[in-house]
Every structure is written in structure tokens, then in C-alpha cells.
Amino acid sequence: EPFVADEYIERLAWRTPGGGSRGGEAFDPKRLLDEFVNHIQELQVMDERIQRKVEKLEQQCQKEAKEFAKKVQELQKSNQVAFQHFQELDEHISYVATKVCHLGDQLEGVNTPRQRAVEAQKLMKYFNEFLDGELKSDVFTNSEKIKEAADIIQKLHLIAQELPFDRFSEVKSKIASKYHDLECQLIQEFTSAQRRGEISRMREVAAVLLHFKGYSHCVDVYIKQCQEGAFLRNDVFEDAAILCQRVNKQVGEIFSNPETVLAKLIQNIFEVKLQGYVKDQLEEHRKSDAEQYLKNLYDLYTRTTNLSSKLMEFNLGTDKQTFLSKLIKSIFISYLENYIEVEIGYLKSRSAMILQRYYDSKNHQKRSIGTGGIQDLKERLRQRTNLPLGPSIDTHGETSLSQEMVVNLLQETKQASERCHRLSDPSDLPKNAFRIFSMLVEFLCTEHIDYALETGLAGIPSSDSKNANLYFLDVVHQANTIFHLFDKQFNDHLMPLISSSPKLSECLQKKKDIIEQMEVKLDMGIDTLNCMIGQMKHILAAEQKKTDFKPEDENNVLIQYTNACVKVCGYVRKQVEKIRNSMDGKNVDTVLMELGVRFHRLIYEHLQQYSYSCMGGMLAICDVAEYRKCAKDFKIALVLQLFDTLHALCNLLVVAPDNLKQVCSGEQLANLDKNILHSFVQLRVDYRSARLARHFS
């Protein structure tokens, strides 16, 4: 531990008797001084002893340092000597290696010509046998030495090509004949080895045949035998994948160029097996059954591309993607050239049949209804005419819309889009997809939804009809549901096909025009509200009596509100619920606001037609309170505010004459025109009394 002088002295004083550090002892400075003096002397003796020991150790260290330095110098000298010896040895080894290399070059220079000479001598000997016309060498007569014979005859065949024909025609023909015989023997041997499954023998024979012209024939034989018994099931594509997978494992052990052999096998499968299978499947239905033809074409093309994807795992050379694409194109090019025309023709006829089958099931004969474009519709809406859409049509309460039929149309279009995506050339895909979309617009939007809207508009009854059938709201509801299905299909299946092409803006514009045209017709159909108001007028006219608000016996009124009020409120609640079920989004609030405002105006004008006694006024207030409850179902602030104000106005019918001015200056009536207030006060039976007129003036 570090030495601390204060602590050391403190401990020394504590141990000394009379040092004053322990309790109960008297302090004795003399004894403490003596102890310090003695201790200082001991420390001085200890210091001298330690100093002598330090000097001794320093001398010993200096001595050992000198010895170590001397030893290092000796080792450095030894290292220099060893390095010099190593350099001399390295130079000697380099010299010897140079001599050995030179000697090897000389030996090779002598041996190579010698080997060539020996080889040439052997070839000359074999050539002489062909000249003599008798093959005596064991290499030609022993069938087990076919490999050596093949090597010799291949070399002789190359030499014979250089000889003049006029002098050596006979020997050249003999060599060519032997060349051909050996080639056939080797191919036969390869075939037999393949049937026996002897991979090593096949590899040996293939290596020999590699230098022969018939090597390609050997590959053809291998490919042909590989396919024997490989296509026994109904699924030719699965069989082809299994075959290629099996051959891929084997071909590398047999041939020196396995990727070429495997590519040739795949080409043979595509051009023979698959092309024949595709032709049989498609030509059967090409002219007689467009639906089955398109289904088969899509299925076959999909399965072929899936097979191609599996084959991409194998080594087929540098550009296997292009290689496989060309093979697929060679099979389907004649079918894909006019695919879209067949697709559009089928989709058109199929859609027309689905529509006609639906209308036939309803015993409905389609007719021409309405003329003019979207501008004409807007003009008719702006003028708020009585919907001059031709003669009224009895729809028997049916909407002429069918979700089941629409689902069938959308399903056909979805399948057509999927086929278009798979079978169209990438450059033609947006254009073809747009044509399919146009077919859907024509038959779903124009021929079905638009026709139903026109029929619905033509079937809207006049506002004075007593038994108005407001089924147009059902048309709105179903058209809204169907268009949501149409929009979903547009986003899910069409958008991915055209999202990155100029056709996108064209499709969006076409869709926008369709929506706008339908919205205009739906907006025109909202004049159904006139029919609702007309129906309410009929109820009020039939049920409301003048004696309701001016009863003969003022003290014997037992009803809380009039029968007309009950029926009108029941009718309005049904229509509000129907509107909520038929529409969605902001359209609900817009239509309900319009209906609420017209409902308020009708009740306001209706109340203006009667005179009110005191009890009749109370009954009118009860009726308006019930109307206000009904208005709450609209959930429109403006409508509720209008009925609140009307309820406040009805209070003028019963308030005491002295309180009229106070009521008129209340929060709800203060901002109303004085003429409106006056008109309600005039409805009181006691209005003509001088007292009431004086208080209100």
C-alpha cells in the first residue's frame, strides 16, 4: 500500500504508552519523544542496510548487462555467416535447376521427333496393310481393341483426305469403308451399353466417337433411347420434366459437352412431343368451339412456360432464357398471332348470350329507350323537365338488373384478362387489355346498367299518381352494388396490365365518362322525390279533415295527433330507410336533405290551409312534434332545424294574446320575416278579435 507519513506516526503514537491516543491513559510527552528518537535511529539503520543492498544489486545488473551484450554480438556474427552460406547454397541450387531444365528440353527435343517417327512408322505399316488389301494387325482383327483401332483409323482417314484421288482412290475407299464400319460398331456398342445401363462404357465409347463425324448420331441415339418409355402417362409436361431431371444427372458422366446434349434433348422434346400434343389439343376445337379452344390454349401455354421455368435450373449454355423462349414461340406462334381476335369474338358472343339468356328468363323484350348523349342528359336535368324519356313503361316492379348475371359477365372478363396477360406479347398487352375492357363496358355498363337506368327513368310515375311505385330506388341500389363490383375488377385485373402504358389514361377517361353518364341519370331519377311528395299530398288530402284542428267539442279531444300525421310519418320513415339502403357515401345525405326540405315545405304549406282553435292548435303542435321526430331519422341538421322552427311557429296558434310579442321575439322566431309570423297568427280562429289584432300589431 502507498506510504502515508501521517498515518504511520499516528499508529506509532497509538502503540506507545502515554502517547495520548488511547482513552484512560495520561499523556507523557517525554516517553513519546524517546520513542520517536529511538524509532528514527532504527529507520536510519534500516535505510543504510537497504542502500547497501541496492548498490550491490545495481553492480550485479551492470555486470549481467555487459555479458548479455557480448553474447548478442557473438550471435549476430554467427547469423551473418549462416546467411552467407544460404546465399551460396541458393545460387548452387539455381545453377543445378537451370542445367536440369536445359537437359530436359534437350531430351524432349530428341524424344518428340522420335515418338512422332514411331507413330508415323506405325501408321505407315497400317497404311501398307490397306494398300495390300489384307488387314493382318491384331488391332483390326481383335474386337476387344476397337478403341485402339478407332484411334488409328481416324488418323488414317485424315491422312487419306490429303492424298490425290487418282493414285490412291482404292486405298481411300478402303479406309473410308473401315472408318464407317468402326463408327457403326462404336455407335452399336454405345447403344448396347445404354440399354445395359453401363455408364462407364458409354463414357469410353462417347470419348472415342467425339473425333468421328458420327458423334452427333451417337447423341441422337442417346436422346432417342432416353425417351423410350418416358411418355406413358397422360401428363406429357410432367413426364418431360421428370425425363430432363433424370438425364441432367446422367449426361455429365457420359459426354464431355453435357449442356449441348441436354439442350438437344429439350429441343427434341419441344419440337416433336410437345408440338404434336399441342396441335392435337388445339386443332380439334379451333374452328368449332372457341371457349374450349381458348381454355386449352391458356392451359397448354401456361403448362409449357411452367415446364420452361423448371428447365431453367439446368445448364443449357450461355443464353438458356432465349433458347427456351424460341422453343415456346415455335410451338405457339401460329396460335398467338390471332389470339386476341378469337378472344374478343368469343367474349362478345358470350356476353351477348349471357345478357339475352337473362332477359329471356324474365320474358323481357329489350327496347330502345332514350336518345342523346351525356350533354342532352345534363340539359334535361338542368331544366328539371318531367323526364321526357318516351312512353311510360310498366316494369312490374323489377329492376332489370341481376347481380348473378353480372357476376357471370365479370367472371368471363376476368378469365379473358388472365388469358390476355399470359398469351399477349408484352408490346400488345395494354392494347389487348383495353379491348377487353371496352367489351365489359359495352355489355355490362351500356347494355345492362345503363339500359336498366333508362328503363327505371321511363317507369317513374308522375307526381300526381295515387299509387306510386318507387322502385327506381331499387334500381339505384342494385346499380350501385354492381358498379362497385365493376370498379373492383377494374382495379384488380385491368390496372396491372396497363399501369405503365399510355392506355391507362384512356381507360381512366372512359371509366370517368361512364360514371358521369350514370350519375346524371341517377340524379335525374332522384325526381322520384316528387313522387314521394305527391304520395304524401294524397295521404294528407285523404286523411286530414278540417275538423281535426277545429273540433266541435273542445273539451273532448282524445287523440294525441291526427291520423294523417301518423300515416305520413310511417310513409316517410319507410322512404328514408329505402334511400339509406339504396345509396352510400355523400349521396345519402344529399338526397335526404333534398327530401327533408321538400317534406318541410309540404307540411308548412299544408298547415297554412286550416284555421285553428285553441285545442286544434295544440293538436297541430302535437302533429308537428311527431313530424320533427320523423325528421330526426334524416340525421340532417338543416332538416331538423327547419322542423324546430316550424314547431316554434305552431306555438303562435295557442299562445295567449298577451304573450304573442314575447314569443315572436324568442330565439327561434326572432330572425323570421314578420309576414311569416303574421301568416301563422292569422290562422287562429280568434285572430279577428280586436284584442288579438291589437297585441300582434
TrEMBL record:
Residue stretches in coiled coil: 40-78
Domain of life: Eukaryota
InterPro entries, A to Z: Sec10-like, Sec10_HB, Sec10_N
Domain called Exocyst complex component Sec10-like alpha-helical bundle: residue spans: 148-696
A family per Pfam: Sec10_HB
Domain Exocyst complex component Sec10 N-terminal span(s) in chain numbering: 29-137
Keywords: Coiled coil, Exocytosis, Transport
Gene Ontology biological process terms in this record: exocytosis; Golgi to plasma membrane transport
One GO location term (cellular component): exocyst
Family, similarity comment: Belongs to the SEC10 family.
Protein name: Exocyst complex component 5
Species: Formicarius rufipectus
UniProt lineage: Eukaryota, Metazoa, Chordata, Craniata, Vertebrata
